[in-house]
């Protein structure tokens, strides 16, 4: 039952912290990835749906985030998005 689960979970969290906190030096790491879900937009001229990949880049310490939509996950698009994020 759900109440039994909650009781056991509370008992477990008293012994072990389920949250891990990572400390990063400023400017040390940059996390880059594409999201698993695509973004859909409508072309004004043809009314066709176009799926776009979503590129996300996050600075580790400040959690400053850069997001860009691009056509694919090919190397050319990845490099362009990464360069745009660094310039931003």
Q: Give the termini distance in whole angstroms.
A: 50 Å
The helix-strand sequence is: HEEEEH
Percent in helix: 25-40%
Q: What count of helical segments does DSSP give?
A: 2
Low-confidence stretches: none
Mean pLDDT equals: 89
What is the number of domains? 1
Apparent shape: flat
Return Rg in Å.
Answer: 20 Å
Strand segment count: 4
* Major beta-sheet overview: 4 strands, antiparallel
Strand content: 25-35%
Structure report:
With 88 residues, this protein is an alpha+beta fold. Helix content is 31%, strand content 30%. The protein has two helices and four strands. Strands 1, 2, 3 and 4 form a four-stranded antiparallel sheet that branches. A hairpin with a 6-residue loop joins strand 2 (39-42) and strand 3.
Throw out a few tags for this protein:
88 residues, flat, 30% strand, 2 helices, alpha+beta, four-stranded antiparallel sheet
Q: How would you sum up this structure in a few lines?
A:
This protein is an alpha+beta fold and about 90 residues long.
SSE blueprint:
Blueprint lengths: L1 H14 L14 E5 L4 E4 L6 E11 L5 E6 L4 H13 L1
Antiparallel strand pairs: 1-3, 2-3, 3-4
């Amino acid at each position: 039952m759900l109440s039994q689960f909650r009781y056991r979970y509370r008992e477990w969290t008293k012994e072990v912290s389920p949250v891990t906190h990572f400390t990063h030096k400023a400017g040390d790491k940059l996390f880059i990835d594409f999201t698993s879900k695509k973004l859909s937009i409508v072309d004004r001229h043809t009314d066709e749906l176009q799926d776009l990949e979503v590129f996300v880049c996050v600075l580790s310490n400040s959690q400053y985030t850069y997001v860009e939509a691009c056509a694919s996950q090919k190397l050319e698009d990845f490099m362009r998005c990464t360069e745009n994020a660094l310039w931003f």
